[in-house]
Design brief:
- Four copies of one chain form a homotetramer.
- Chain A is α/β, with parallel strands linked by helices and 345 residues long.
- Chain A folds into two domains: 2-63, Alpha-Beta Plaits (2-Layer Sandwich), CATH 3.30.70.1140; 83-343, Alpha-Beta Barrel (TIM Barrel), CATH 3.20.20.
- Helix content of chain A is 34%, strand content 19%.
- Chain A is built from eleven helices and 15 strands.
- Chain A has helices at residues 11-23, 50-53, 107-119, 144-157, 171-177, 191-198, 214-226, 254-261, 270-274, 277-290, 316-332, and strands spanning 2-5, 27-32, 37-42, 59-63, 83-85, 88-90, 94-100, 124-126, 160-164, 180-183, 204-207, 232-236, 266-268, 294-298, 336-337.
- In chain A, the strands form three sheets. An eight-stranded parallel beta barrel of chain A has the order 7-8-9-10-11-12-13-14, surrounded by seven helices. In chain A, strands 2-3-1-4 form a four-stranded antiparallel β-sheet. The first copy, chain A, has a two-stranded antiparallel ribbon with strand order 5-6.
- Chains in contact: A-B, A-C, A-D, B-C, B-D, C-D.
- The interface between A and B is large, with 45 and 45 residues.
């Protein structure tokens, strides 16, 4: 922590800051500049809040020096974390595509989708049973019935399943059916939920909140890691900005930024980012080119009949084309795409 | 819903849109313009999603015409809703100030605060027992012990209490101690929690999410109202923008905008909005001048020792001055401030 | 400037930073912490760029300590600057309302407006002759003819005029007709224009850019002040955010923030901020309650026929009511409203 | 235009809207819904402003149907525009990389850079002589001397030059030295400047304003196109958001969005977007993968001594590596990189 004194701070005020810092068990280093006096706080004493210090007499502001996240930081864990999930590895050389509908709607819909995805080489099926929706009048998901349908196709097609959990009380239920628990963007700072999944050892796909900074995403991961669950996968899915042509603004820079700040795997969701199916392929290719470890893509056999997010869903045919494009881009950046067909390229 | 066809849409595509609209039980009104054909959808059939229609062949976009909220809308409930809470009314002629520390920290702290606030004429004490914090290493609140301390001072000083609930499982516990349940900004779209408080009849203070639009705030209120709980108070507390001099950007226009769109009471939280105690008084006066029905203000007897949000907390002395300023502004806009001393002005 | 070294920076890297800092004519103060080494840079040597230092080996980042503005800063000029303009003072005890149409459209329009405003006690007429418009197909203002019409009513009704200048080449022309030159939000960082008006001694109304921070607004003012023109009035007019119910988001906190950071007068434009006439009065009252030194309000005798910004214009009748409301709020915060009728309150 | 009447609008109000619409020379199509009446306005009469119509009695809002840009729209010009500039084509199959320092600083600096870039196969040199800087105390560019240095290396190395023009009065001067005139982000809505370059026939590189929407960028292009200059190249360079880890947020979706909305070439500037050299390569690869027609990349032989933007500049060595990466990604998306070495891949 660096304490910047106000222009004209008195020597008494400066002395008092030093006294308080030392009283809290720290060393204080004084630097008297031409216009400002600066005091560095050094050591491992009782926690000091910059917020509070900024209120001490004569203090202008207090600047934190250390990053607030530790367990998520690459500084303390230089090598990449790879999350293995029943044979699929997220965070390694292979880029993993997770695809499927926004919501499970019916046996036919999820079966048709799973079959098509399997053919395209997908190993992880996405699909929501519990859906957070802006309006109480919109389709809220099939709930437990949706989970059962997911398990049926999971078993039939030998797929893994990623699905959302919205409430601490549902974790065990969802974990019975799914392989990866998704924390949605709206729940990224639902700390009760973060604590609860941190107590489990299930793989967690943590989506960035729509107005969360990169640092806040890492702090949310820190909640889970600090409870002992190390199997955290981060997901960039677009942030809210003034631009409204797209549903959100996909923060492509967050991918290399996160890869340098943390050891955790980073995947991208171009479907929610753009909200428009015709932009999904370009953003998916971009995410792979920028270093993403995986993708989350919405696919629906009949987007115009989807009960949610139809406008951002690819048909299975368009998705199959995209997979071929992604294979080429992955290869261009020295990686490969998980799934059958990999050898062929 | 209005369907705008693409430039050059064929008559077959137009015919097909009309057919589908009628099949869903609606009437279709055709308007053939110079550059675009437009089709109005009229009636009460099976719900149609604009998202999906935008995917029909030849369609450029589908524009919704109606506001998505009903129960919260002033269109359907023209008169102001007043929420009575054990003798205090929120949403009426009197402006209600809720004040207190960010978090309950100790018996001494909450007692000293409550005593000072009572002297200033405050009737509702705020204070968190469960605290949502960005970092898992920060003070998370005293939990149930905090609730007990709140009840002690509530009884001793005859105050009402507003305090946060973070999880559906805690609602009944929190309601045993508090009079108003606060849903924090980070939980505004925690739909499990909204549903759960909607099933109760406790007064709910719903804070606007830091990146939520006015419409989304009203949709979150709609979740609660649609479950039968009509005692909802909305709170503007600043939104996230590029400006970082303040903690958030207080959206002053949201106050008159909400007052015109909804019948629900609207209060303001200048402390979280600004994050700087020296700006709180100006923004509090502004909120009253703009028509707020109440204020939520952080007061701490020793801000520089606060375990959270010290930088935005007023001392009891500064708060007492602010109360006098607010009385004058309230009077200037034809209202009064709740609490003793009102007669004197 | 504070230099934060990377975790694990070598003593050679630290030594090299010190060497370079001293070579540039500064003193280097070393603070070796538990996890990080910090080096304070002190003195008045050749300018050092934090941007560059952050690239030196072993450096994590370089934090500036001083505010980048000087002439605009209250630190160096504690007392309020009052800008006198032909008998009207902006920045003093009296709050000054500048009102009029977005654009001068015709002799009748500007005459009718001026007459009504005069009756309401307004002393400064606003009106654009050169209009920056998003679309090249929209009305671009009457240009020189508009300036002539402004001068006619200015003389007839003894008003001062504030009008926009968009290009360095137009400054002298506009100054022949207007008393205050407005730099619009889109030109806040048109540095050629800032330099050019800085060379004059005309009063300048500098509007905050729609995505400019408070600090950038002060830096833009610094451009003008550094060329010798001290007559600068700042204007908060709303910033661009994700909220689209209003045209912009009025940053009410910027008013007290600017008043504490700078000695320059600060006025507010609730018309452009909201874009909706029905919200203008509430935001105008709020701005006065928050400490604004003046207001810029759009008034049009027939808003529904306005060639620009009709939706945010008040009719003269509504404006007259607002003036009465503003008088009461001004009085509540210990100030008065400029213009006739002041005595009466 | 679609006019949505208020709930409960009277038949008299509806009749009056129809009368006014017809009086302006349009047809009015009435659709009476269950909750709202809607009136479609059809035809080519005197321009009607939706802003004004929204003020007519009984009207709730007026929704525009047509996009406001015409000349820039792909609807009216389906094939791609290719801008040929002395033998280099922007907007065709080849992706064009423009590289060089933020600012021309000295003969040595620009010479060393040009030599290195030439070796990497670059055909267009970027470099500013007039620099828009946030602070008046920062380096403002060498002005005319900078232009002369650019021409020297341009001739010596047979490069084209792109350089910024900040003021209408400088256009002819800058065009004597540069091949492409850049309009910077801060000037995207400097309409005087847009008009002035629209009157010339020089190629214009138009950068997106930091808080401008995609539509506003296209409207700015429309200003230039409407004056007859068809040689416009658009540039995505990041927008301003709440995320401050990066200098701006690169809007990757804007690339495919622009490519679908307009026929103009679209290039990307990952240097200004990220503000951090270590993120530039990832974002540059992403832009190519997303369909950009070119890139603008800052390269400086000694970034840590740069007079501006050192932190976002690549060294020539890093740039040479990036060029190889870009060649591979370009090939993966079916394109090639302009410049020597293309054949080799």
């Amino acid at each position: 922590m660096i304490v910047v004194m106000k222009k004209g701070a008195t020597s008494q005020e400066i002395g008092e800051v030093i006294r308080r810092v030392e009283q809290a068990g720290y060393e204080a280093h004084l630097s008297q500049g031409v216009e400002r006096t600066i005091i560095g706080i050094i050591g491992d004493g009782r926690p000091l809040s910059g917020d509070n210090i900024s209120l001490w007499p004569g203090v202008e502001r207090a600047l934190p020096i250390l990053k607030p996240f530790k367990l998520a930081s690459r500084d303390f864990h230089p090598q990449d974390t790879v999350v293995p999930i029943n044979g699929v590895k997220i965070g390694g050389q292979e880029i993993v595509v997770m695809a499927g509908p926004c919501a499970v709607e019916s046996r036919e819909q999820i079966h048709e989708t799973a079959q098509a995805l399997k053919t395209s080489g997908v190993k992880i099926l996405r699909g929501g049973a519990f859906k957070p929706r802006t309006s109480p009048y919109d389709f809220q998901g099939l709930g437990k019935e949706g989970l059962r349908l997911l398990r049926q196709v999971k078993e039939e097609f030998d797929l893994l399943v990623v699905t959302e959990v919205m409430s601490p009380g549902d974790i065990e239920l969802v974990a019975q059916y799914g392989d990866i628990l998704q924390i949605g963007a709206r729940n990224m700072q639902n700390f009760s939920l973060l604590h609860a999944v941190g107590e489990t050892r299930y793989p967690i796909l943590l989506k960035r909140g729509m107005s969360s900074t990169i640092e806040e995403l890492l702090m949310a991961a820190e909640y889970i890691l600090s409870r002992g669950n190390q199997r955290v996968i981060l997901c960039e899915r677009g942030i809210r900005t003034f631009e409204n042509y797209t549903r959100n603004t996909f923060d492509i820079s967050a991918i290399p930024a996160l890869k340098s700040l943390t050891h955790l795997p980073v995947v991208a969701d171009p479907s929610h980012a753009t909200g428009r199916w015709e932009l999904v392929a370009a953003v998916a290719r971009a995410a792979v080119a920028a270093g993403a470890d995986g993708l989350l893509i919405e696919v629906h056999p009949h987007p115009e009949e989807a009960l949610s997010d139809g406008a951002q869903s690819l048909t299975p045919e368009r998705f199959a084309c995209l997979m071929e494009e992604l294979r080429r881009v992955a290869k261009a950046v020295g990686r490969s795409l998980s799934g059958k067909g990999t050898d062929a390229t």
